[in-house]
Amino acid sequence: MQGILSRILQPNNTKIVLCVLDGLGGLPLNGKTELEAASTPNLDDLAKNGASGLHIPVAPGITPGSGPAHLGLFGYDPLKFEIGRGILEALGLGMEVTRNDIAIRGNFASVKYEGEVPIVTDRRAGRISTEENKRITSKIVNEIHEIDGVKIRMDSGMEHRFALVFTFPEPVEGGADNVSDTDPQIVGRKPIFPNAGCKEAEHVSTIAEKFIKHVSRIIRDEPVANYILLRGFSRHPNLTPYSDAYGLRAGCIATYPMYRGVSKLVGMEVLEVADNSIRSEIETLKRHYEEFDFFYLHIKKTDSYGEDGNFDAKVGVIEEFDSHVPEILKLNPDVLVVTGDHSTPSVMKSHSWHPVPFLLSSSNVRGGNSSGFYERECLKGELGIFKATEAMTLILSHAGRLQKFGP
Asked: Can you give the pLDDT at residue 93?
């Protein structure tokens, strides 16, 4: 699709705001999804006059991670560009990643030892504080600098997360990132061995195994975060930047490293936010509004509370965002989109494959099909059910940025 768009792009001065409430979609609890249970008068008004629908992040029945789900929304086919979360986390933390590097995303975790065998009791170490994360990361960084000639870089992320970069003497081969995650995805099991999926990945898996063993000795006596789980082994990909693909000056407003990373990967400028609040993100949007054509604004806690199974808290974040919608509208964007990257139903405590609510407000919509912004009403909207990779085409067309295709 990007190849076609590059031929029909039509520059203008329109402003676009894409708001992504992470994990927005849900399933009913006592008959209502989180969106249905939430009081969202501002979003409901937009839905009544706007275009709504549901998007499929990857393919029907496929549960996406946040990386591929965002790539799809940004117009990059996640089945073509398989990108591990490691590079997104590393870039989001400001770490440099080159062709010589393998980037990995990590979790601090809690384990109990049965003999010398670790058994996972909490995959996220109780979501330790970011300050505690920094303290433990410093212990590791001070002791591990290199393994078998491979340089080791590690940086603390938010809460239990961290990023890890292995720098090899030469550029890594294709397939070198084909190493299995060590997270068993369920408590009560031992961590998975970092298995190489092909010959090119064997050296990487060996370094990962040695790193895990070394770290486990360093932090074994920590009261909570006494182990690490590695995920999303990845190499540096080659993506067409937003400015070339869509003719947009794009700014990212996100507080979590992974989302800042995927934004950097597609050529967005990552803007600084004072803190993790929605209020601060809106203030950042206001402050930089004249500098960019396109803004991606990310809200994380809808997903976090969904994964925790906290239905009411997820409802609360949706309602808080709704209260800020009038401030966004005062900026008078030509296109305002509110959606999620994927669904995270609280009743499932995980990401899911369910289509995601999508709302587009513009002067170029028919409108009048939906009475509110939630899953069942979005299905009645004029956009129907569509692939996430088509979202940018819809956004650009409603912003008047696409010419007619063909004679």
From this structure: 85
